[in-house]
Amino acid sequence: MLSDAQWAELELPVEACQPKSKMPPQDLRRTVSAILWRHQNGAKWRAVPAELGPWWRAAQIFIRWARAGVWERLLSLVQERGVQLGMVFLDGTSVRAHQKAAGAAPKGGSQAERDHREALGRSRGGYGTKACVIADGAGRAIAFRIAPGQAHELPQAIPLLDQLPGVPKWVVGDRGYTGNRFREHVWGMGARPAIPPQRHEAPVACLEWIYTNRNRVERHWARLKCSVPRCGTRHAMR
Question: Listed GO molecular functions (predicted)?
Answer without folding.
Answer: DNA binding; transposase activity
